[in-house]
């Protein structure tokens, strides 16, 4: 076998695809140096041809050298076939096995090996190895442990599909989606918070809305609060404490010192300045909230922890529930303070490598600080839970709709705490596409695809569990990552990246289990380049597809509402795209031009020409559905000024779709011009910093917003009627 063939086979065994097609239809072969770089990050030696040959033999041999695979994912309600691999001379006698079920019960049995059917055979070193099949009866759903001989296997039994709210069978529901930080209220401290969320829930539920879609609430870096992208988090397992309403914490009412500080003249002026700013000043928000939160923790420690009272017991229960994941985050945050940076590869070696003796000494000397960070997460849990309970009490079919980012920053707490789960040095991105002809580097580190099986999908399950808790829906950003990710090797650029396969069947099955257990539906963000057959897999698992009006096209314009799929979450736009008014006036194109994001004048002119045509198509689509406001002709897009009536018409258009869920952007309802994030920019555009122009109290005091939501609710009710009877009510 020649060198090229060995490396190619090794790449395929590790899931690295040999080529990809770019947006121009050009085939790009995966370079040998890309393969070697990715393999090294996956823990596979391939630096030399001899290494590659040895690693390939390990890939072939290793599964046959173990009695049991590390994990088996099986479907509930069906008999389970457990593969046993033994050399020919061992296929005799009896084999005892034990099954420890998740509920604590145990089952055991003995099988006669020579009586088991064998369904595969391999030869290594002149020895024949048989794969036998042990049949188990159907098992309850859950995470179980199977043992045979000295071997142990995780056995995960999953449902056929993800959870869907029972209301979805008869109703076409709608909700608002927004960036939590963007909310304004009369008493916020410069950023939207969980109390603002509760206020919003009351208004949306009162208007018949069933969901509140949120940006990722993941923990960001407290030492650099200006790095505000929710898609480059410090941890996906916990929430950002800057979203806390400090005054709603029980300790605020008890702590006179904290109240005096918050009511001082200087503090109140700073709060009012932050509240009135058009853009969020995250360092200022952190400087306002964190000192007061420290006072609240000291009050809690003195008045509750030391007395071991009921609140202390609640905190202790939270610590036990979150376990080592929470320990890792809080230790990381304390270490970042200690060393003046969260960039942990720059820490002293013993802390980079998580040397247990060094960590034990640090935990002891910094116990109070570590516990403070845990206190922040506890308060986040309590306030988010209260918001979720309010949504349930108000009868919302979905309630809170969380967003799970693709991964975490390479310098994150998750990466530091769970290093074996990640492919260190690798970044997730995208090949050249219409957004960026140079490709994209998202700056986040991927899970190591080769360790998912070895670790029984434990980290993936924990991520889902943490983000589904108290949520009625979870949007998985770039859901194509369940089947493949475009990975950039260490030191490389997006042009040197390659697609790498992930175990779709098993990941979807684990997602279905967590979805059913948490009564949380899943929405897959399947925009962009979608592999053939992937959407069918999502639909079979009852994962809602994301359908965005701007992208849903027919040959002669926009797709009519009736052609949208039923199992989908539809919306006009997303945080990465123009608002309706911004789309109409070309605010996104103007921003790209100002920041030099067009590669040349021709690309800019093409974008402007396409937008002009799209505006004509938009009016034509509304006209076909009989939704064009009176006095507007389909052909006068060039001179037409965007109005709230046109916004209502587009919402009525999408509201007629048979899709289960219609999500309306808060920015569109209130007439925001600029989008939340401009892809391709970092600091040049105020990404993740824009606030609503008015407070929630002002917005909902205006009948126009209430009428707009009522109209959406009416349209959705008619869509449900059409779906069930074929006629509008």
Structural description of this entry:
The chain has 729 residues and is an alpha/beta fold. Among the domains are: 3-63, no CATH class; 69-158, Immunoglobulin-like, CATH 2.60.40. The chain is built from 24 helices and 27 strands. Strands 11-12-15-19-22-23-26-27 form an eight-stranded parallel beta barrel, surrounded by seven helices. A five-stranded mixed sheet has the order 3-10-9-5-6. It has a five-stranded antiparallel sheet with strand order 16-18-17-20-21, with helices on one face. Strand 1 and strand 2 (27-29) form a beta hairpin. The radius of gyration is 27 Å and the shape is globular. The termini are far apart. 43% of the residues are buried.
- Give the overall average pLDDT: 95
Total of helices: 24
Radius of gyration (CA) equals: 27 Å
Q: What fraction, in percent, of the residue positions are helical?
A: 40-55%
Largest sheet: 8 strands, parallel, barrel
Low-confidence stretches: none
Instruction: Output the CATH class name of the domain at 69-158.
Output: Mainly Beta
Shape: globular
